[in-house]
Structures are given as structure tokens and as C-alpha cells.
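Mods, move this if it's the wrong board.
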Amino acid sequence: MKIYDVIVVGGGPSGISCSYHLKQQKVDHMIIEKYELLHTWKNERWDSFYLVTPNWMTNLPGVEHLIPYDNEFMSRAEIEHILLEYLYYVKPKAEEHTTIESVEKKAGYYQINSDNGPFFSRNIIVATGLFNQPFIPPLADKLPKSITQIHSKDYRNPSQLNPGATLVVGSGRSGIQIALEVKQTLNFKTYLSVGSSTPLPVIYKNINGVFWLNKLSGYQDGREYLSYKPEDLENENIVNKMNQNLYHCQIEGVEIVGRMINVIDDKIEFSNDLRKILNDGQIYLDKLHNMINQVAHKEAMSLEDLSVPFDIKEVNHDILAPLTVLDIMKDDIKNVIWCTGFKANYNWLTLDIFDDHGKVKLFDGITTSEDIFFCGMDLTPDPDTKSSFGVGLYALVESARRAVDAVVKSMNKEE
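Not the wrong board. C-alpha cells:
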């Protein structure tokens, strides 16, 4: 019976990065992946997908020479190529197409039961992501079967949609990009439902806003930050990405509505507080800016005086006249795209490490009361945010290192 020192659950970039760091520490390990390695990046991104982080923030050891040091954004095809090169560089040992059913604690190790037989390990790193299961609200069940419903995970392009109006539910970056694409491609009526507003800064102090979110989590390992330059104003790749916002939804003819609250008598009802939602979003953004200012001051960062004047506009509240009801028949609603995010699912992890609400009890964002460690769970320093501060391929390699360091430290204590 082979007992590994560590089994990593999840074969995405986080799991592969755990393998990279475990190899550096010469720890005997393997990955278990439900589908194939990099499945999500190969199969669960729409065709026109671009990263939210600029190229210089993509931080993957061993393939740095393939990643441009600039402020452009990688397309789906480009990032998939980079990730495949990273996979080839790391060469992790992995058991693919294996679904874990339960975990049993034995004397000195864990038995991981799967549809591909049992596996055994003294430690487990969970690298399946902070949110790993698509979330669709129960309201979806109230919609008539004539409406095509797609979660953003399964959306590829507008050709999947029926002729007629489309409702996009969720106004994060995915929802905004998809709503713009549907409107611009099909030219049917398109609605965007805004349930809450916790916007991320697009640019702050002349640096991409996502960099600052990672700084707020204490991430330091990436390449040196790159400020925007005047020539970036002429770069179509950069400007187009900057323009994926609620303002451009508004001017492109996407109708912005409030939170979807009910479906009754073939009518979809929305909250009547859209202006408040947007105002609360600005308050939240101001709070983030204050937090960023504190970090920049504390670290005495020498930021450039130059400020590149990207014309980033806000929604015009004066012309907002949000609907509170859509009549499915009269308004010809044929499609609903759920950009409502993901939720955690650890049903397979049958150990006593959860609280009464089903949330993992973590001591430091990584460790539990068992020899079970989590990668990517230490990314939310502010309780008001609904998304993690540590974002993208800038943060995940360092997050994986933190998890591996915690495992190795625990193993050394036991020796």
C-alpha cells in the first residue's frame, strides 16, 4: 500500500503550483483531478474571454520567458497555451478522471476513497479553489422551460442563444463582458441585472487595480509592478478591456436593472433600489482606495507622478430609469445567462473540520485541526468583500507556496 506524504486535490493552476513547490521541497506527492489537468481553463471559459490581470501580473515559474512584461491582457487561447507550457514544465504526477467520494482518517494517514479506488496520504492539500461549484439561484426553477438558461461556466458565445431578448444576471466582470458581447453581436434587447456592487478599482495610482487587491492580501512574489505609459492609451487590447464596465453597457444599449427578486405569472421582478446599489458600490470603492493608500504609505512605495488619462466613466445616474418588471412574453425574453458566480462544495471531505454553517474552520487561512491544508482560502482580509482580494495568476503560485510551507512545517514537527 503506497502512502504519499501529500495528495493534492485539484489539477488546475493552483494544484499544479502546489506540485511545483512540493517538488522544490522534495516531498513525495501526487495530484487527484476529477476531470483532466487544467480542465476548467480548457473547457469553462467563453471564446472571447480575456484575463482580468495584465500580462506582467501572470506569475508562473519556469515559463516567465513566454509571458510579455506589458499591460496587455491575454486571450483565452494565449493563457491556455501558457498554462499548458507550465504543466509541461512542472510535470506533476497525477491521477486524472478520478472523483473523490469520501475521506477516512486512519492511524497516521488518510484513506481517500474514489471511483478509481482508494488512495492514501499523510497530508492533503485542497486546491479546488475558493468557490468551485456554479451557483444558480432557486429562482431559475420558476422560469418557463421555453427560456434557454446558461451559467457563465457553460457560455461560449452568442450562437448558443435563441433569437430574442437576453437577461444577464450578475454584474461582475464576467456578466458585464458577456452582456456587452451579446448586445453587440445579436443586437436584440439585452438586460443586465445588478444584484450588488462591490467594484474593483480599474486603475489606481497609475497601476492596474487588481495589483492593489493582491497587495492588500500581502502578496509579494510577483514581478515588479508596471505603471501605465502614455502609449497604452493607443493600445486597442488595453483600452477595450478598460471599457468593459457598466458605463459602456449603458451607452451600448444594455438596459441596467436592479436585483432579480422573483418570477411570478410569467413576469420577472427586480428590486427598485438600483441607484442605492450603485451608490453603495462607490462607497465600497472609496473604502478600498483608503486601504490602498495606507498600504502604499506603509511600504513607502515610490510611485510615478505620471498619470495616464484613461477616460474611465461612471454610469450616468441621470438617465437611469430601471425597470422593475419584465413580461416574459411581451418583452420576448428568450435567454437567461447566470453570471452569479460559484460556491464552495466540499461534500467529499468527510472530516470534522467544518463549522455549523458548513464553512471550513481555518486557523490561519490554510491549516485545520487535521492534516488537511487549503490553498487559496487565505485571500479575504476584508469581511465586506464578496470576492477574494488575491486575484488571478499573480496570487495563486504564492498561495500554493504558503500551503506547501505549512505542510512541510507540520511534517517537520512530527519527525
